[in-house]
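Troubleshooting log. The previous run stalled partway through. Resubmitting the same two chains, unchanged.
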Amino acid sequence: MATADVDTAQTNGNGKYKVIGTRPIRHDGVDKVTGRALYGADVKLSGMLHAAMLRSPHAHANIKSIDTSKAEALPGVRAVVTNADLPEVGDRIAELGEGAVNLRHLSCNVLAGPKVLYKGHAIAAVAAENIHIAKEAVGLIDVEYELLPPVLDVREAMEDSAPILNDDVRTDTMGELGNTPTNIAAHFRYEKGDIEKGFAEAKVVVEREFDTATVHQGYIEPHNATALWNKDGHITVWTSTQGTFSVRQQVAELVNVPLSKVKVIPMEIGGGFGGKISVYLQPVAALLSKKSGQAVKLIMDRSAVFEATGPTPGSYIRVKMGVDAGGKITAAEAYLAYEAGGYPGSPINPGCMCIFACYDVPNGKIDGFDVCVNKPRTNAYRAPGATNAAFAAETVIDEICDELGICPVEFRLNNASKEGTRRVDGVEYPVIGMADTVEAIKSSAHWQSNLEGPNRGRGVASGFWFNCGLKSAATATVNADGSVSLIEGSTDIGGSRASLAMQLAETLGIAAEDVNPAVVDTDSVGYTDVTGGSRVTFATGIAAYEAGMDIRRQMIARAAEIWDVDADQVRYEDGTIIGPESSYTFKELAELVIKTGDPVTGRGASSAANQGGAFGTHCVDVEVDPDLGKVKILRYTIAQDCGTAIHPSYVEGQMQGGAVQGIGWALNEEYFYGDDGSMHNASYLDYRIPTCYDVPMIETIIVEVPDPEHPFGVRGVGEVPIVPPPAAIANAINNAIGVQMTELPMSPPRVVHEILKKNS
Amino acid sequence: MRDFEYEAPTALADAVELLAGANGSAKLLAGGTDLIDHVRTGRLEPDLLIDIKKLAELNVLEASDSGLRLGAAVPCYQIYGNEQITSNYSALADSCQIIGGVQIQSRASVGGNLCNSGPAADSTPSLIALGAVCVIAGPNGTREVAAEDFCTAPRQNVLEAGELLVELKFPAPGGKSGSHYRRFIPRNEMDIAVVGVGAAVTLDDSGENFVSARIALGAVGPTPIFAQAAGDALAGQPANDDSIAAAAAAAREVATPIDDMRGTVEFRNHATAVLTERVLKTAIARARGEADGYTIGH
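Second attempt completed without errors. Output:
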């Protein structure tokens, strides 16, 4: 990595730690680079059937009837399922760790109920002896539709005259339900101070409107599930997921069996970014297995991934901000409307809470709306809701800075949230590093450099993400050779095996290589919430630390027994167990463990700890082709508060990966719909994520303001880096060619449109 | 994917017979870079695939004083790897270098690109600009069609039942000649042209004036477009910014683009003019033997 020359001392608490802050080879690395790691598509079981899905060709329709008889009659077909095979789950809400879901909506999303709400909506599935037969049988299913007009735009869907998607949705306004069916599923409002007074005190007030397109997480690996519903009623599911326990819960609820009847075995995961938490295929594969008596494997193709799995919402946002002559924010107001997709549940609330989170806003008002449209049901995507919001707020700030002649970095320093700042939504910050990230950019080689040449510009933007705690469990067993096996339940989407093993190693004073981390199935480890919310290195890290402390206590007790002294005369220091007269290294005592008594197994869990939040500030240089509107990223630097970087390479990798996804969101990614509600670009050819030719090496500055809630000061790092890029790039484009972009993506046709408008 | 038969004839007459005998249920397989994907996804369901890579006539690659003969099945990498093509038919080499990545270029053929007849095909504007003639064989013998007359609508062309494209014939460039093709794509790789422009110019001995020019446009109409008037008007004109700007404006006049996921009408019209200017400047620089300043992807 380009940043490998960074002095390790910078990132290990100035020598405070032995393992933390170093860069060992990841434990799962060899399998992954040699192709031996097993992903969802690699599952092969004896007698396994292959399944295919019938998906709706229409964006909005009532299903009048489904006739599966011809498909069932095709030789080689073993089972066909529709929504009629799913038990009635009722109008219940299930907590899934990171977000809640209405089970009836989830059930109807898995296999459409009375209506299809987006093109690609799953309707029926066929299991057959091979995939070719299954696909042929799908073509033999007759569905009679009653076509309904689709509504695709969030503001149109909010109008009284809009077609209603769900007749059971009522607007939830701060807990109070409306009376009539609507597409507006929720209205959030946050207020602080006196907004009128605040704007009256401002010297400059800027108000702008923004539109952002629907974008997808774009993981390489499609969704997958293999299920075996055994004759004894036990269901085993092999799947790549961000949360095995969440899959277990969703499958159990949707097929109506007790939790303990479902075992979920995690396969390696080829990217998730929030999109592999909700179930799509797992309950369907289970039902097909129940009907056929065989294991059934179901894998999505790419177009289904785009058309039917969780993108992040398109949005309409209005921001108004007032700043006084001294450059202090006096008031800020926002209106956000997010597209939920077919069923309620957009990340509108986090969007509302994040939009002004970087700054001390004395007077604020935020309104947010969750709105159903005929697009796939949205799901989490890296800091869900925050990127849309930051694009609006951070570009308005730049415009104000321009007008007042204030340096955008100084403005951000001057207004930065800090410990004790109260957000508009009421939360008061603990120790945070917002200002530290701005300072880091201010003193960076990038910011200090001169940018010369025509059509070039520089932009900065900051971003916030909460990060969460939730629940994790881990156990660790001491082996006779001095190694420790770490058993945990956080599926590894970002190098977490390594970061957890390192925290356990640090706790025990042994080498990272002497810890063998394993992510195991739901029958083999304590309850662990999803890999999401940038929580694993934090919360499962606490569990690993606690398991390590448990081992230390047991090792002390064992040594005391062997030496025949009181345990309080023995101490554990730097991997050595020290008694009054003698000492053991960890390895020496590990060898004696099973010779002298019970095996030593440590146990750790975490639930109470919550994170203080993560901030990042990005700086980008661009060059814009003034004739063709193409934006070239010349240089990109991120400063991010990571609390304490456990494995700096993976921290940097998260920062870089998030920024690259943000660059794609900024410049080219969008769901392109026809008027009939069909997505025209459901492939990687025309859904344009950046290639390696489109981004430079992203420079990273790790800022460390330790989070006191974690024994090593960890803050989650995975999500906040996607928040600032579109805003930073918009600010850079404006700086380069004097055109303020208010719509995402800032694709060449849109940039050219603004240039032509400006020149005419 | 449906089952199909596979034949790999070694004589052109056999290929024509198989094709004519299949009554429209056969597809020709050269590189297969489009065909196999269409069959895999079920967009096409042929009963018979006729592999034409074993036909000698379709593998000709011969550059001489009288021009260039390019077999319809010759893959892209052989084309841009041929020095005579890179120096005398540069637009064609430019096209072949940006069609797919190395793996695709090792299989995909210019003949296949033309016969798919996509409006955004990267090689077709170069064929038109370079004055290529398509040699077509069928049950009733052989005929020739100018490249600009080959495509008739999106995914449709002049080939009749039982006919196949055998080779493309290019006239030898005269005097001080240069050609170029470039496209606009939003990324720097892995994209279909939003607008593509190919041009070939011949300058007088001074290198200051146009003798002739041919300009062709891609992705701005239902078929690749021969912007004949734009090129013809350059004959006898000095090769300067004014004449280039006039040609660009004339090229823009014949573009009939649509709004789609790759671009808007406004953008495509605008980019047609911008690219025509840039392409003509590069072609002129090449005709003069000057550095052309072209890098792939921009």
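Takeaways: The CA atoms of residues 93 and 292 of chain A lie 31 Å apart. Chain A has a mean pLDDT of 96.
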